[in-house]
């Protein structure tokens, strides 16, 4: 249930890298929408009261009052769920390329006790809530300014160390590129050109930083997304293989079995049985 909401407006901002697209305060119960989705923007969630959770890809993040959750763009997640029995949260949708380029994690979770070092952030979020709720004169500009200050404050806490290796940064860029384009036709040469690295060197540093090759990571992203389609859609195996960017249904089936130990059809049947029970 949305309690208060404000859609941001395009305009001149103090920090051109941060634009507030939307801010809303809402109540979340235990019967929310569980279908996963992605956004092209950064989503910043601040828990006002109650307890709940958020599923981000294959992880479940539990939330409590004053916790803060930042979800990077193009990361698959479900809507918030309240468990106590309702949770109230303030959500900011941000066009925020700074976090998109700089953050290694797909999401950042700051518990309330850690936010003690960022008391100002908590105060800014409460001020944002007041502006959206009361909408005094100039509240649109105030919301934008507060959002910019929140991002700048968090960047000091979350920014990687200044001595981060260039190769590590390039691997993060490649991984984020794959996260956004994994359904498209992507080759190792494409990724190397994007990163401006020799493809053999890219494989070496990606293995070192991520624990797998770029193509293995690409296939894992496709398999993860195909699982959701197999369990929640009526698309055929052939259609799913095409949707996920596989060159053929047989290659999709081989990759899926190698990753999960079962075929796509077997996985679908098991998912359907699990839903019935």
From TrEMBL:
Record keywords, A-Z: DNA-binding, Transcription, Transcription regulation
InterPro entries the UniProt entry points to: Cupin_2, Homeodomain-like_sf, HTH_AraC, HTH_AraC-typ_CS, RmlC-like_jellyroll, RmlC_Cupin_sf, Tscrpt_reg_AraC-type_HTH
PANTHER family hit by this protein: ARAC-FAMILY TRANSCRIPTIONAL REGULATOR, HTH-TYPE TRANSCRIPTIONAL ACTIVATOR RHAS
Record's protein name: AraC family transcriptional regulator
PROSITE patterns tied to this protein: HTH_ARAC_FAMILY_1, HTH_ARAC_FAMILY_2
Annotated region described as Disordered, given as residue ranges: 251-277
Chain ranges of the HTH araC/xylS-type domain: 172-270
Basic and acidic residues bias locations: 266-277
Compositional bias per record (Polar residues), positions renumbered to this chain: 251-262
Keyword Transcription regulation among record annotations: yes
One GO molecular-function entry: DNA-binding transcription factor activity
Record Pfam families: Cupin_2, HTH_18
Organism from which the protein derives: Candidatus Allofournierella pullistercoris
Superkingdom of origin: Bacteria
